[in-house]
Design goal:
It holds the Pfam family Alpha-L-AF_C. It is an enzyme of class 3 (hydrolase). InterPro entries: Alpha-L-AF_C, ASD1_cat, GH, Glyco_hydro_b, Glycosyl_Hydrolase_51. The protein is an alpha+beta fold and 673 residues long. The chain is built from 11 helices and 35 strands.
Length: 673
């Protein structure tokens, strides 16, 4: 009896707990599903045009973003210059096949290229047969590329190298697995002793019969003697637009529809010391003649195959305006005083001539010789990299500004100083802003430019990113905070000209900075949540911004904007309403649109949402699509409509206006986001 009574009490207790739990769930749910009012004035007379180059991308050579990344060259240290000018030197990552009893390699200064004099001497001590026979397969050298070469079945790779020898040559060039056991492709170079007495360029194609994501390039022989090598290159024949960019990574950039490309840095422009700064004139011309340099800001060598010309070409291929960040005589640890800055000023003017000059000009002729006689549309030049606090910057800046405007008055010059330092004696067309902060602070900075004076130079927010503990390697919460910040830039685009995130790329084998927008290795890639967030803004540049207000008591976690934009893909016009819900509560949103000159179509409107199950969810090689936009048709599209905003989400409502080509075309347009 006592036991039964105790069980009854137990049951009653469990029922009460369940009732309390249900009450709590219902209560929290009712609080979560608050109702907000969003009003959009879509009348043309109250709209303002967002700058045509508002949203772009910023490339810096960091995290092996270019060398071993966007630039498709597969050989690392192709010219053997990375070990320095003193010989013998380190030839990393090159290694020998064989051992010191049958092969000796050493660098010397015998190259035929004066600007990069280092070459590699390979002395083979063994023979094809006899008592001193070479190991099976021969001896030689191999290059693993940047953490393995991605060799794909049936793909063709262009091999180029310079060879010298006073003896006859029998050399096998192969693509193999990392252990050399799987042969993917091979080519034999033969020649009599007189054929290679002088440095000779050899080019040929290697067609792969298999696939290996961790392959290597090897050069082997069974013939004794000495052979010199220099400028050994392996490029995929299938690159983006045929211009040397890794196709999958460049396509990810193109999908963002960037309106400008800022390059090449960042600290990379400056260098820790000027001896290692990015010098544009040493990165143009034939790739074999480029000396390369040590990227001491981020601690790795670059052959400068991705040089000034290639950045301009990439801008053209992406349909983006180039924005060149110049070295203004400052490194992270040094400055050139104003009395001796003239040579640096002249160098920048020469660089503009390379980009824009007629083929008859000194530097324009160099560009034309590289296959681009037409000038590149370079109209933005940034003087330095956030250097306003440096001792000589302000005086030096005036000299750069004056020289550029004298020769190219249509170029917009960007200052590292804000409006407090800009004046008639120190003028600027635009000023550079960098924002790195926590997610909470980034969200609050959606109002950053609301109190900015509406006259004077406009801001270029050329670097922004959420950093800190909640940024991880690219989290949902970081992407949402950045989205709110960008909506704030849209709403204040009368004082903001351009914006781009940083950094853009990271090779997963060399994370110098996190988070980044795009992660890759030799054969894989994925976009982080903030990469997918940028897709919500790729139609904003040049669009019409409409006034919008949102009302919700005791909940300040919503940020919104509204634009109308024209699709080049289907020819339709859309009203896009974006809302960031940065809070933990779902929101019932009542949208009211006034001032439209055409109706919102019943069919063909799309809702796109970026969210996930946890604030710190990230994408990865294992789960590349964990946090990506999800699109669905809007079934109640109209000037008055009720929708639900998920907690911690970015939502866009693309409402089809006017004459419709049908739901199918609109759905096709958005399902590829």
């Amino acid at each position: 009896m006592g036991i039964l009574r105790a069980c009854s009490v137990c049951r009653l207790f469990h029922v009460l707990v369940l009732v309390c739990a249900l009450y709590q769930i219902l209560y929290v749910g009712s609080v979560a599903a608050q109702t907000a009012q969003l009003s959009v004035d879509a009348s043309p007379q109250n709209a303002q045009v967002i700058p045509g180059n508002m949203f772009g991308i910023f490339f810096e050579e960091i995290n092996h973003a270019g060398a071993g990344g966007l630039w498709a060259e597969l050989v690392s240290n192709r010219g053997f210059e990375a070990g320095g000018s003193n010989t013998p030197s380190n030839i990393d990552p090159w290694l020998i096949i064989g051992d010191e009893s049958n092969i000796i390699v050493a660098t010397d200064r015998s190259s035929c290229f004066a600007s990069n004099p280092i070459a590699l001497q390979m002395e083979v001590l063994c023979e094809a047969s006899g008592t001193n026979a070479c190991p099976s397969g021969g001896v030689g050298i191999y290059n693993p590329g940047y953490w393995g070469m991605n060799i794909e079945r049936t793909k063709v790779y262009r091999a180029t190298m310079y060879i010298r020898s006073s003896e006859s040559v029998e050399l096998t060039v192969s693509l193999t697995s990392s252990d050399g056991l799987q042969n993917l492709a091979s080519h034999t170079i033969t020649g009599d002793k007189e054929d290679f007495v002088e440095w000779t360029k050899v080019e040929f194609d290697l067609a792969s019969s298999g696939r290996n994501t961790n392959a290597r390039l090897q050069l082997t022989t069974t013939k004794s003697g000495i052979i010199w090598f220099d400028q050994v290159s392996l490029m995929p024949s299938d690159t983006y637009m045929g211009h040397g960019f890794r196709k999958d990574l460049a396509s990810m950039l193109a999908n963002l529809k960037p309106r400008f490309l800022k390059f090449p840095g960042g600290n990379y422009v400056m260098g820790s010391y000027l001896v290692n700064a990015f010098r544009w004139s040493e990165t143009v011309g034939p790739w074999e003649e480029r000396p390369g340099h040590f990227n001491d800001a981020w601690a790795y060598w670059t052959d400068d195959g991705l040089g000034f010309f290639e950045f301009l070409q990439l801008s053209e291929d992406l349909g983006a305006c180039p924005l060149w960040v110049v070295n203004d005589g400052a490194s992270l640890n040094e400055e050139v005083p104003s009395a001796t800055i003239a040579a640096f000023v002249k160098d920048v003017v020469n660089g503009i001539e390379f980009a824009r000059g007629d083929p008859q000009t000194a530097w324009g002729s160099v560009r034309a010789a590289m296959g681009h006689p037409e000038p590149f549309p370079l109209f933005y030049v940034s003087i330095g990299n956030q250097e306003c606090s440096k001792h000589y910057y302000k005086d030096n800046y005036v000299k750069f500004y004056s020289a550029i405007k004298t020769s190219y008055p249509d170029i917009k010059v960007i200052s590292s100083c804000d409006t407090s330092a800009i004046s008639p004696v120190s003028p600027a067309d635009l000023y550079d802003v960098h924002v790195y902060t926590s997610s909470g602070d980034m969200f609050s900075k959606s109002r950053m430019f609301e109190t900015t004076a509406r006259n004077g130079p406009k801001a270029v927010v050329s670097e922004y990113a959420v950093t800190g503990n909640d940024a991880g390697r690219g989290t949902l919460i970081a992407a949402l905070a950045e989205a709110a910040f960008l909506i704030g830039l849209e709403r204040n685009s009368d004082v903001v000209e351009m914006a781009s995130c940083a950094p853009l790329f990271v090779n997963d084998n060399d994370r110098r900075w996190s988070p980044d927008a795009i992660v890759f290795n030799s054969w894989q890639h994925y976009g982080c949540p903030n990469y997918w967030m940028l897709h919500f803004f790729k139609d904003s540049s040049g669009a019409a911004l409409h006034p919008s207000t949102i009302q919700l008591s005791n909940y300040d976690q919503l940020v919104t904007s509204a634009i109308t934009w024209n699709s080049s893909q289907d020819g339709n016009t859309y009203l896009k309403i974006k809302v960031v819900n940065f809070g933990s509560k779902a929101v019932n949103l009542n949208i009211s649109v006034t001032g439209l000159q055409t109706d919102i179509q019943t069919f063909g409107s799309i809702k796109t949402v970026l969210t996930s199950g946890w604030l710190r969810d990230e994408n990865s090689f294992q789960q590349p699509d964990k946090v990506v936009p999800a699109a669905s048709p809007i079934t109640n599209a109209g000037e008055q409509m009720g929708v639900v905003l998920d907690s911690y989400s970015l939502t866009s409502f693309d409402l089809l206006l006017g004459s419709s080509q049908g739901m199918h075309s609109a759905w096709s347009l958005h399902s590829s986001v």
